[in-house]
Design brief:
The complex is a heterodimer of chains A (about 325) and B (about 290).
Chain A: H1 2-20, H2 28-33, H3 38-76, E1 79-80, E2 90-91, H4 97-102, H5 104-134, H6 142-150, H7 157-167, H8 174-177, H9 193-218, H10 222-230, H11 235-246, H12 248-263, H13 267-272, H14 286-295, H15 300-332
Antiparallel strand pairs in A: 1-2
Chain B: H1 5-14, H2 16-46, H3 69-75, H4 80-111, H5 117-126, H6 132-145, H7 152-156, H8 163-174, H9 178-186, H10 191-202, H11 204-219, H12 223-229, H13 238-247, H14 254-283
Helix pairs in contact in B: 1-2, 3-14, 4-8, 4-11, 4-13, 6-12, 11-14, 13-14
The chains are: A mainly alpha (about 325), B mainly alpha (about 290).
């Protein structure tokens, strides 16, 4: 990626050098051909100085708030905090890593997160794709429908939680009227609490999923679909034999992006399942576990270990996506 | 597919099957729209009810006597006004900061030649792979030792630089024709003037996409505002404020908490209505093209 940019910048540089070397008697092209002179070097040094100056803000911010904490996380993993407040953490090396990874608190939380991801990702993507397909026609008023289908992308996790917290309330509104009156209520049931939180997340993801799928559909040439239609392929065949294969890069992108988001779910659990709720152990997604370990149990070492596992999962997903995108780019050129 | 409405009408007389399909499409679209919007609609209705109407059966599907004072209560006694102000200040600072730092860095990567350029660009992109869930543990300590715990600085400063923004704007800057840069140089434009008068105005679509994207991200942030303010102080963002309102909720104040949710949602609905194009552009960066 970056090499393309550098190459593109080169002609500009040649012009710069030529201008700088525009001494009397020497034509522009001659000056460009001659080796770097004192003036050119000074010019380049000045340019490099300016570049570093422009980069200072981002490099300082990234250094302090991204790279330093990232590296310190590995150090934290090696320190154990005593269970009594006020005592300093002491070095234990790699000793607490394995017990943490095999603790039921962690494995349960990892399994819960994976179940959550499996509930959220396929459903939100399928629903998003269905919406994108039915909205992929030139009809009057389609702008309004597209706006509606995209709308949940701007909903925050807190807004969605308040909305669904009330919808799922056992006393208020629809559920009691429909006669759906489970005891315990959905958000306090060991079976239904996690699916309820997943439902909220699916609704929240629907907008993003629709937007990504629509963008993908728009890149599928209409003539291709029209040709298939004229050849007598029915809607169902066209969908499975043409739309889905042509859309596979988009679907892959959507899978990775929404998996990454789903692994980072936290807010809905924090808001809807209080710390005192009996089902907390069944909705203890990774981030909730990390925050709880850090703030309630005051144990940064163990929190750092779990955060590292999350990082490795997200890194794997990102690399998968990058490798895939790179391959696609090389096909395209 | 017909390009114009008129030809659609003409054809639909010729082909009743086609007309049927159009009607079917509208039915599917409308049904889906109702399902997607239903939770929001119920929330708006419920936010305008009297508390005892909430348990009525069947539930009212229209507020016959809208209780607008629920919104007044959410704004004042439930402190939504304070939460909105905190979120607005934090969001504006983050959006402005991200735009400025990204413009500066992207300009260097797109237009200047300097040693370690590739390496530094990769370094900037690497930050996209470091999740907040890893960094917040140490950032809490950093912010505390800077005496920024529970302050606007603590809320905003860690987010003033973004690898995504640098990437997006560098792409935009690279699309500016080289001829233009050379012409500007011949006219005696220095880098600062070229940046502010030529590069930034030409990159406006990408700047808008970045601004909308970082607005959405900042306004909807949850984890960091929760831990970096302690979550129980007046300096809460709307998201944390909603949690405060909701967790202290009895049935009687449900309409007020729903009114709070509607208030928190309004700026984002405006964002969607006005900047849908830019939003789509930023969200699909990397997906298509």
């Amino acid at each position: 990626m970056s090499s393309v940019g550098d190459a593109a910048a080169a002609p500009g540089m040649a012009a710069l050098a030529a201008e700088e070397l525009g001494a009397p008697g020497a034509s522009g092209s001659d000056a460009g051909a001659s080796g770097p002179s004192h003036g050119l070097r000074r010019r380049l040094r000045k340019e490099a100085g300016l570049a570093y100056l422009l980069l200072v803000p981002v490099l300082v911010l990234f250094g302090v708030f991204s790279f330093y904490p990232f590296l310190r996380n590995f150090k934290l993993m090696l320190y154990k905090t005593p269970p009594f407040p006020g005592l300093p953490a002491h070095y234990v090396g790699v000793k607490q890593i394995w017990p943490t990874l095999t603790s039921t608190q962690f494995t349960q939380s990892l399994v819960t997160t994976i179940v959550f991801v499996v509930l959220v990702v396929p459903l939100s993507l399928i629903l998003g794709l269905v919406l994108a397909v039915i909205a992929h026609r030139k009809l009057k008023g389609m702008t309004v429908y597209r706006m509606i289908f995209s709308s949940t992308v701007v909903s925050s996790v807190a807004v969605a939680s308040v909305i669904f917290g009330t919808l799922l309330n056992p006393v208020v509104g629809l559920l009691p009227w429909l006669g759906i009156n489970p005891t315990p209520p959905a958000l306090e049931s060991t079976t239904w609490a996690l699916p309820s939180v997943a439902l909220i997340t699916i609704w929240q993801f629907l907008g993003l999923s629709f937007i990504i799928m629509s963008a993908g559909l728009q890149s599928v040439p209409d003539e291709l679909m029209e040709a298939a239609r004229i050849d007598g392929a029915g809607a169902w065949t066209r969908f499975w034999r043409m739309t889905v294969p042509l859309l596979s890069p988009t679907i892959f992108f959507a899978v990775v992006v929404s998996t990454i988001y789903a692994f980072q779910a936290f807010g809905a659990v924090d808001i809807l399942i209080g710390p005192s709720n009996a089902v907390r152990l069944h909705t203890n997604v990774l981030i909730y576990n990390i925050v709880n370990t850090l703030q309630v149990e005051n144990n940064p070492g163990v929190a750092a270990i779990m955060a590292t596992v999350l990082f490795l999962i997200l890194l794997g997903l990102t690399l998968l996506q990058m490798r895939f995108l790179e391959r696609r780019v090389s096909y395209a050129r | 597919m017909p390009a114009e409405e008129g030809s659609d009408v003409v054809e639909s007389y010729k082909r009743p099957k086609r007309r049927l399909r159009t009607i079917g499409a509208y039915v599917a679209l409308t049904a889906s729209a109702i399902v997607v919007l239903f939770p929001i609609y119920v929330t708006v209705v419920n936010s305008l009810l009297k508390p005892d109407q909430l348990v009525e059966q069947p539930p009212p599907l229209f507020p016959t006597h809208p209780q607008w004072h629920n919104y007044v209560a959410a704004w004042t006694t439930a402190h939504m006004s304070k939460y909105m102000a905190t979120s607005a200040i934090m969001t504006v600072v983050i959006v402005a900061g991200q735009l400025v730092t990204s413009i500066l860095a992207a300009y260097a990567f797109a237009f200047l030649r300097f040693p370690f350029k590739r390496t530094l660009f990769v370094v900037c992109l690497t930050t996209l792979m470091i999740p907040l869930e890893v960094t917040f543990i140490t950032n809490l300590d950093t912010v505390t030792s800077l005496h920024w715990f529970n302050t606007y600085e603590g809320l905003a400063v860690p987010f003033l630089a973004t690898g995504f923004g640098i990437f997006l704007l560098r792409q935009a800057f690279l699309q500016i024709p080289r001829d233009l840069q050379e012409a500007a140089q011949l006219d005696g434009y220095g880098h600062l003037r070229f940046m502010t008068r030529v590069a930034v105005p030409l990159a406006r679509p990408s700047l808008a996409a970045l601004a909308v994207f970082s607005f959405l991200g900042a306004w909807n942030q949850y984890l960091w505002p929760l831990v970096s303010t302690g979550g129980t102080t007046p300096l809460n963002t709307v998201q944390i404020g909603l949690k405060q309102i909701l967790t202290g909720t009895e049935v009687s104040s449900i309409p007020v908490s729903l009114a709070g949710a509607v208030i928190a949602f309004v700026p984002l609905v405006i964002l969607l209505l006005v900047f849908q194009k830019q939003l789509v552009r930023s969200l699909t960066a990397g997906a298509v093209k």
